[in-house]
Structure formats: C-alpha cells, structure tokens
Specification:
8-stranded mixed β-sheet
C-alpha cells in the first residue's frame, strides 16, 4: 500500500480545546497546520462542559464564543457547597466584572464545532479525523512527524494535545508523572430533567456519604459526578445495577426518582480515574506537549478547559518563532514549560485545597468554616482567590501581533 506524505508546519495530535485553539492561532499567523484526531465528528463523550471566565474571555477575543454560545449554553452564577440544607461555601461569580461574571455550561462539541468552522476558513488547514497516530517519525534522533494509517504527516514540530492518556507522550518515551494526590474517582452520568430552571448554580452537595457535583447541562439535562474513594466502584458495581442505583439515589436524593427511571444500563455511567500528573518533561526535539498530555488535573474547580485554552495561547507565539527561526529543539521548545510551570503548580495546590474542603467532615468543616467563609467574602483575599480560580494567569493574552489575517 502506498503511503501518502503530507508536509505541514505544525502537526497537532488531538482536536480538543487545546489542539483546536492552538491550530486556529497558528493558522491566523500564516502557518500551515494539520490536525490528527482519532474520533470522527466529535463522536465521543465529553465530560468537561464548564467554561471559566478566563477561557470565555480568550475565546471571545478569538471570535469563537458568540457562535459557540448560539448553539446552546447555560449560565451559572455561583458555585456552592451544600451539606443537606446548609450552605458551607458560596462563591458568587456575579461579583466579577461583566461580561464574564458567570460560569458557562456549554457542550464541548459546541466549542469545538465553532473552532473547526474558523480553522476551515484557512487554506493552510488540514483535518484528519478518524485517524489514530500509530508512530512518530524520527530523523537523526529528532521527531519529524506522525504516522497515521496510510498517511505520514511530516512537520517542523509535532504537538501532543491528545489528553491525559496521551499516546504521543508515550511514543516519545516521556513519563506521565502520575501522582495519587486526590485518592478518589468520579462516576459521571447525565439525567434529563425536562426543565429549564430560572437560576442555576454549579453545586457540590452532601446528603450523606460521598459528595456529588451537579450542574445543569444544555439543553434540559443535569450532569452529575459522584465522588468515590479511589478504586471502590468495582465493589459497588459487582453487586449489580440496582445496587448502584440505590447508592446513587442515596447520595443524590433530589434526583432519586430520575435515577430510578432513566438509568437502565451501566453504559450510561462513566468512571473517571481522578489523579494529578505532570509529565517529566513537556518537550523533546521536534515535539511539545500541551493540555492534559503535559499536566493532568482533578475535575474539581472546573479548570480543564481554562488551562487547555491558556496553554494554547501561551504556546502560540513560541511556535511561530520556532518556525521562523527553524529551531524546534528541545532547548527552544522547553521555554513553554518554564513559562507555564508556576501556573500549573498553583492550580494543583488550589485543587488540593478545594478537594479537602469538599470532602472534609466534622464540626470545623460544617460549622466553623462556613462562618469564616462569610467573613472572608468581604475581604480582598476572597476577591483575589476568586479571580485566580476564574481567570488563571491574567497575564496570558493572545499574541495578536503574530497574526497575518
């Protein structure tokens, strides 16, 4: 079988938020970009649907947000931690400056479709969906491309944006750097409510047993994530679907009736192995990793898309300079990790604190901490913490001076 050879400036493996935002930025800077994606037409389940204000602002600057929102989305004004009927923590996003004074629940496919639409307007864009990367091309010890099926994509630089279990990272021989910092798993599922509530919050509630994350999902669904001790779901599932449903109903009483009616198969439940990780290095000669391929986080705090978009924005001018200078060495590309490492370490620390706050029990957690939170809400410390959660590093801005369109 003849092998088709494709030549491009940058080959991005993975068409998630990190990969497609980076592709669009590079295309607008006059580079040729080929994106390799194993799924077809987003035919996979996306769990992450929450956009923080930081990601919204950058997507808006790229001209993507309005089109994505028009496909359907829900605004959420607060993040609340509730123990039975007692509010333990209440983070109000409405205190942030407009227009990004909320969280946005939006199907990830809506964002990706809009990004693809923008990418396809550029002649230098090639999209290979339904293609699995099977190997890396190497020349004199340097990565020079990707093999996918009967095609070989040769590039100045390969970008691994293929997620927490990145095959590109593995093919490059880079260790994932996994740590069991959270010691929990999350069982995700969706229920159809048939209702569109007037006010919406992202909430974590405890009704006895493990906490449950819940938020309204477009158009008339609720997405729930049941937190469980690490590797404990196997024992629960071994007792059958009815037992699983009983446990879900006990953990999420407001949705007990819907759980009984709508959960008819274990295939509707998706178990997320929660861990944190930071790859031992984010670059090699001819390769750079971004998003979950470089650093993996807990879903707590809804930081995944925020971090992915900011990674792409930060890496963009470095790759433009790399192509223009003809330098894709590890030494050159590792500048991305040096610039980003502090932000990632900060998010991991913040998520560890958030996890402890969500899972902790006892008098201090349920009585003293809520009072402290109410006091802190009126101090500069609260505003600083909220801004950090909402925006990440505000210094990360799109390098529009690189654009040629």
């Amino acid at each position: 079988m003849d092998t088709e050879e494709i030549r491009t400036d940058i080959c991005v493996v993975g068409a998630g938020p990190a990969g497609l935002v980076l592709a669009l930025l590079l295309l607008r800077s006059g580079l040729d970009v080929t994106v390799v994606e194993r799924a077809r037409a987003h035919q996979r389940e996306f769990r992450g649907e929450i956009l923080q204000p930081g990601a919204m602002a950058l997507l808006d600057r790229l001209g993507v947000l309005d089109g994505a929102r028009a496909r359907g989305a829900h605004e959420h004004s607060r993040f609340r931690l509730v123990d039975h009927d007692r509010v333990l923590l209440d983070i109000d996003y409405r205190s942030l400056p407009s227009p990004y004074d909320h969280l946005l629940s939006i199907p990830q496919a809506h964002v990706l479709d809009e990004l693809l639409l923008r990418c396809e307007k550029h002649d230098g864009f090639r999209y290979l969906d339904g293609h699995r990367a099977s190997d890396l091309v190497r020349e004199d010890g340097r990565i020079t491309g990707v093999v996918t099926g009967s095609r070989t994509v040769l590039a100045h630089c390969v970008v691994g944006a293929d997620g927490r279990f990145s095959k590109i990272r593995r093919l490059a021989g880079i260790e994932a750097g996994r740590t069991e910092a959270f010691d929990l798993d999350v069982l995700w599922f969706k229920l159809t409510t048939g209702q569109v509530p007037e006010t919406r919050d992202v909430r974590v509630f405890r009704a006895g047993g493990s906490p449950v994350l819940a938020y309204d999902s477009w158009p008339d669904q609720v997405q729930l994530g049941w937190t469980l001790p690490h590797k404990s779901y196997g024992d629960i599932a071994s007792r059958g679907l009815d037992h699983v449903k009983e446990q879900l109903a006990a953990a999420a009483p407001p949705y007990a009736e819907l759980i009984a009616e709508q959960i008819t198969s274990v295939r509707q439940l998706s178990l997320l192995d929660v861990f944190s990780g930071r790859a031992e290095r984010w670059a090699a000669d001819g390769l750079v990793l971004i998003g979950d391929a470089a650093h993996t986080h807990s879903p707590i705090g809804a930081q995944g898309i925020n971090l992915a978009v900011q990674d792409a924005v930060l890496l963009h001018p470095l790759l433009v300079e790399s192509v223009r200078a003809g330098d894709a060495s590890e030494g050159f590309l590792s500048a991305f990790e040096r610039q980003r490492a502090g932000d990632i370490a900060g998010v991991q620390r913040m998520q560890s604190l958030q996890s402890k706050a969500m899972l902790s029990q006892g008098a201090f957690a349920t009585k003293v901490r809520p009072r402290l939170a109410r006091v802190l809400k009126h101090t500069p410390v609260y505003r600083k913490v909220l801004a950090r959660i909402a925006y990440g590093n505000p210094a990360i801005q799109i390098a529009e001076e690189c654009f040629t369109d």
